[in-house]
């Protein structure tokens, strides 16, 4: 059936409003898309880099820009693989054009989201003008809007409105084509970000359960009703799993991500917003404390209008259900099926962590698909769209009733007030987004070195060229994303400088900031900075003899083990807050062999089990040989798991001879290979009066040496000259967070402590000496 002229006019009006609202919100991302990079550090910088590097230099589905020499599957690098792998077919491709394509595609997703939300509202009987206006407001207040600052794969606004609209059409017509549309959209959007595929699975699962529980038809009819969508979801799941299985050679990715039940939705995330002018006033003037935190994964603020309508509907619905009334809902089932409300409620409960937060976390061991979703709070986005749309449908229904009852003033006042309050709250989102995008114009100039000397020119001035190097190593080295290990602290500033150099020089980064990286690869990477007595398997995996270009960020200090690497490097100069070195892998290996040979020459002449060279300050060693542990790292014994949340390992008098001597505390822990958990040590220093001088945490998840699933927790710190007593505590939360403990050592950093076992194994400074 052809559309009538008024319908076509309203469709054009909706499209104009959608484009205008998108331009208002995204500003320069629409009008100057080649020159907007919102931020260079943290997740934002990393996500720009992975997308741009793969678009411009990539091949296939393997991302080579980080984790050198291993690389990573682009889907785990947040590189929007559907788009980036498509773009690199057009190589050579300028990074400006890749950036523009991403920014414009994100903007187009806003237009699509508004258009489909408009169509949904029309389908539910909302008047055309109200459908246009509220569609814009719903989408501009969406929690996904805030993802445009950093998590671009999650910032595409259109998937949930498209999913909702096609589900409505399927629900009403049962035509298979709508299930096919959902499958195609899901396949595309899953390869922009896997969470979008997860949202589709959750939606269809809840729709299936909702239909079975709520539809008034025979069991057979209900099963026939849901079958096409179930097949669509199953086909999508099989497609994604098969694709990853065929394109990803890594077999040891973490199966239990960090903080699965910490990034959930809380009540404050639904009813408050740090971006709304109303709640900003409440925080600044009324000193309201319980407001959603900016950046919360579970953030899903509905807006005051939608909150009021939803709460009112719940109260009236309960009253009608249990009171002396006809029990009819405020919005008829013909206008808004209870299946959609079931989907909204179910997704919200899941986003809140139900049922796992009810002391049922063990269920995750049997529901591996949910274990992979570190931020379960994102499923609340389903609730947002359904609840917000329901609020508009209810408002329209009340407006129509008022007009029919000749209460026109109240009917118009109610709608105008709702539009005004909703638009006022959206204004805060618009201002926040436009402000950081405006800064993104300047950040883009920094990324592309518009007003500064470019890296190729700097190298040329020092008689070097990008082809002289195999990769860039940022110091201090950071390796994060395997869930078990998070080495290097906050990498934001070094990363911001490193990605600019990598983009200009077409050189990959050794450093890693990605998600679910291979454990074995991560273990190899971190050992590179474990000092001269640790094996360095990553260097043996290199396929080139070329040196690394080292960028040492000038505000960061290196510990003795990291600094040891630079003994094998040549200093070049300083550039963009970096000390620049040329680091030679063969020199590192030769230097390590020299150290190993010197130790091997000493071991045969050792009179006892342990010896200390190079320092007269006190040191402590416990091999736990008197303990009967099921697992040993070194020697004949080990300490089994301590069941408590914490335990004092050492309480001892201690005094150094010099002024503030640098020490290292280390201990080996055997960890479970099924999850991310690990313990840590805490050492406190006290003066003669018992006052605490210094507290230092020694984190196992920052371990830089390992043997299988044994990880060496270690940290360098200053032992104060006033110290007279020390206390070392094992922190074991959540207990038990490890399998066994072995080889506790506290030593001066200047000392070389050698330990030998009856089976011929040798420890040097608590590192296992390999057979080099």
Residue share in helix: 40-55%
Structural class: alpha+beta
Bin the strand percentage: 5-15%
| Largest pleated sheet | 6 strands, antiparallel
Distance between the termini: 79 Å
Strand element count: 23
Figure out the total of helices.
23
**Silhouette:** globular
Pick out the low-confidence regions.
Answer: none
Instruction: Report the C-alpha radius of gyration, rounded.
Output: 30 Å
- In round numbers, the mean pLDDT is 91
What do these coordinates show?
The protein has 772 residues and is α+β, with helices and mostly antiparallel strands. The protein has 23 helices and 23 strands. The strands form six sheets. Strands 11, 12, 14, 17, 18 and 20 form a six-stranded antiparallel beta sheet that branches. A four-stranded mixed beta sheet has the order 3-7-9-8. A hairpin with a 5-residue loop joins strand 4 (479-480) and strand 5 (486-487). Helix 6 (128-140) runs antiparallel to helix 16 (380-404). The radius of gyration is 30 Å and the shape is globular.
Q: Could you provide a short overview of the structure?
A:
With 772 residues, the chain is of the alpha+beta class.
What labels would you give this structure?
772 residues, alpha+beta, six-stranded antiparallel beta sheet, four-stranded mixed beta sheet, 23 strands, 44% helix, globular
